[in-house]
Every structure is written in structure tokens, then in C-alpha cells.
Amino acid sequence: MFEPKIVAFFCNWCTYTAADLAGTSRLAYAPNARIIRVMCSGRIDPQFVLDAFRQGADGVLLGGCHPGDCHYQEGNYKALRRYYLLRQMLEQFGIEKDRLRLEWISASEGEKVKRVIDEMTEQIRKLGPLQLKEEIAEAVQREKETVPEQRETSAAT
């Protein structure tokens, strides 16, 4: 039976703390998510998401503070803009948009972490394993190699 692999990028100040609360509250949720703590959801580089898919993730979950509550003031708005960009990119690569999810979860919402991870696990289970065609994996790799060059060019100007 297929068990999805989900990579979850969680904001240190809210969503990661909520995941910790879920653990200390002994809330059992699907073990399919591997949580990666980032200082702010606004610091999640789109390349992290593309790499997660390229390296075998069936889904990616982004978690951040509720709008207006960001520790860094506007990081979650930056994350929201990137999320919409990523959904368009994934569609171009032939990856279903439903494999990427963004959730606002505050530090006190341990129950919501449980619900979101369980829901996403079921959703990805219904979609089945991600079948990245070799051409798509190569395109993702080219995108990865192109992004640093673009940054160097824009930094020079």
C-alpha cells in the first residue's frame, strides 16, 4: 500500500511550535510528514520545494504564522506570493497543484497541525505517488542551476 512522503517546512515561531505542542499534548497524527524548521515561512526558497519533489516527496506542506502575526512582520505575505508562483510552476512541470499546501497555524494550534497533516496525507494518498518523468526532473534541475545565476546578475545591477 502506498504511503505518501510529505516534506513540511514550518515557521519556527508559530507552526513549528504548534507541531511541538501537538507532540507534547500526545496528539497522534500521520507519520508521513518530515518537518523542517525554518526561521520564517518567508524564507522558504521556491528551490527548497522543487528539490523536495525532485528528491522523492509526494507532497510539500508550508506552514507559517497567521497574516498580521508574523514575527518578521511580512514574511508570511512573501510566503503567500511564492506559494502562488510555485503552484503555477508545478503545473508547468506536470505536478498536480494539490501536492503543495500552505497553512497558517499559530503556536497554540497543535490540534490544527494534526488535522492538516492527516488531511494532506489522505489527499496525497488519493493522488498516488508522484511520478516525475525524467524530462520534468531535468527541467527542475535546470531551474535549480539557473536560479543562482539570475541572483548573481540581479545583485550586480
Q: What is the CA-based Rg, rounded?
A: 16 Å
Name of the level-1 CATH class: Alpha Beta
Average pLDDT, all residues: 90
Number of helices: 5
Q: Given the C-alpha coordinates, what overall shape results?
A: globular
Beta-strand percent range: 5-15%
Sheet with most strands: strand arrangement: 2-1-3-4
Helix content: 40-55%
| Elements, N to C (H/E) | EHEHEHEHH
End-to-end Cα distance: 52 Å
Strand count: 4
Helix and strand composition category: alpha/beta
Stated plainly, the CATH topology is called Rossmann fold
Tell me about the largest β-sheet: 4 strands, parallel
In short:
The protein has helices at residues 15-24, 46-54, 75-92, 110-127, 134-156; strands at residues 6-11, 33-38, 59-64, 100-104. The chain is an alpha/beta fold and 157 residues long.
Task: Explain how this protein is built.
There is one protein chain. By secondary structure, this protein is α/β, with parallel strands linked by helices. The chain has a single domain, classed as Rossmann fold (3-Layer(aba) Sandwich), CATH 3.40.50. 50% of the residues lie in helices and 15% in strands. The protein contains 5 helices and 4 strands. A 4-stranded parallel β-sheet has the order 2-1-3-4, with helices on both faces. Strand 3 (59-64), helix 3 and strand 4 (100-104) form a beta-alpha-beta unit. Helix 1 (15-24) crosses helix 4 (110-127) and helix 2 runs antiparallel to helix 5 (134-156). The protein is globular and about 40 Å long. The chain starts with 5 loop residues before the first strand and ends with a helix. The model has no long low-confidence stretch (mean pLDDT 90).
